[in-house]
Amino acid sequence: MSEEDFFLLQKIAEAPSPSNLEGALTYGVIHPIFKKLITENKKSWTIHSFIGNAGIVLKTERKKSNPLKIMLVGHSDKIRLQVKHIEADGKIKISSSSFLPTSLISNKVKLFSRKPDNPKEFNVFYGTIEGIPPIHLASQSLISGKKGVSSSALYLELGVYGSHADYKLKNLGIRPGDPIIFDRKIEKRLFTNIFSGPYLDNSVGCFTVVQLAKMFSKIQDLENIQLLFTISAQEEIGRYGSMVAVENFKPDILIAIDVSHDYVNTPNILWRNFPETEIGNGFTVVCGAMISPILNNILITESKKKSIPYQTVICSRDTGTDASSGVKVGRDTVAMSLGVPLRYMHTASELAHTGDIMSLQYAVYNLIQYINLKGLDKNYFVTNHPQLQKADKITQI
Question: What is the largest CA-CA distance in the chain?
Fold first, then answer.
């Protein structure tokens, strides 16, 4: 990955865009990039916005009356903590449902709250998440590891002190519901192509969608398809943004670009009970759930032809990604869920490999090019559902 591209990935990952307040990423970072892609040759491309969420969609030209519509979705929202209660001594109790409580202790964070005199604007406060005493004062069960940290023990420490500490914080405008996110940057690590930091879920997905939009902006012959480059909102709290996008644009193909797990290197699990996915071995393809085996077959076949590395993961029910949005709004879509494997998902030190992102980017590019150049239409997907009664009988090898 070039330094320029890595800098963009950093900007996407570091934009403060907690769930339901995603505008810093969608409008602050990505919208200007999309706007630059609408050149004289692409003046019929348009950017669509929503009134109920901060998601955006870059829509390409429709050259046929009824093209195959393909929606690529990366979600812009980052998991967040929220203010729950301000105690008399100034400890700000927090809601932490998206995190393991232990992973939050001593992390630097920033809290965003509305200005008391102008609720349209925000202040930002810097602090740390705490919840355990120093080892000198800790119980033996905590020291030994027999006792862990409960979510109810967590609080935000802003360094306030003295009498009426709670009123001091409230007078600054801090209220229940205010979002809190990590205050940490994306950094390269020791080995080539490895980087880490918070919110790679799903900054890598948004980055990939943006990169694909750039690639397809240079192509003149998208005769048979229309592309919808979508940066959705509210995925982490229910996938509401992508459901709205699907309902509005009614895509025929829905490709969620998200993240997955490096099961091989996940500590304290029996990883052999999971697929052997690992960073550095390529992007991941979800198999199962409501994922289209037809679309998966095309992707895997084309990736093999181009020697693009990939790994497969299983999902028996809900994908947990925006790929499920078509089904959730009752839309008949050909769905696919792709990802980049991470270590330590939903922590401040998520870790990934740039090569996996690149493999994902080019695999999706080749998939879409194949669909376009072959002129595949809805009927292709109707008539090619696998029929297992036709499977070859294997009796001896």
Answer: 81
Q: For 207-226, what is each residue's pLDDT tens digit? A: 999 999 999 999 877 889 99
Compute the distance between CA of residue 225 and CA of residue 317 in angstroms, rounded to an integer: 29
Is residue 371 within 8 A of residue 302, CB to CB? The reply is: no
Separation CA 161–CA 141 (nearest Å): 30
Neighbour count for residue 324 (Cβ, 10 Å): 23
- pLDDT value at residue 347: 96
Return the SS3 of 69.
strand
- The whole-angstrom separation of Cα 22 and Cα 29 is 11
Distance, CA of 227 to CA of 225 (rounded, Å): 6
Q: Are 72 and 227 in contact (CB under 8 A)?
A: yes
**353: region left, alpha or beta (phi > 0 left; psi from -120 to 50 alpha):** beta
pTM above 0.85, yes or no: yes
Q: For residue 288, what are the contacts with CB-CB under 8 A and spacing of at least 6?
A: 314, 315, 316
Cβ neighbours for 234, distance < 8 A, ≥ 6 positions apart: 19, 20, 22, 53, 55, 75, 77, 240, 241
CB 248 within 8 A of CB 329: no
How is residue 62 written in tokens? 């429709």
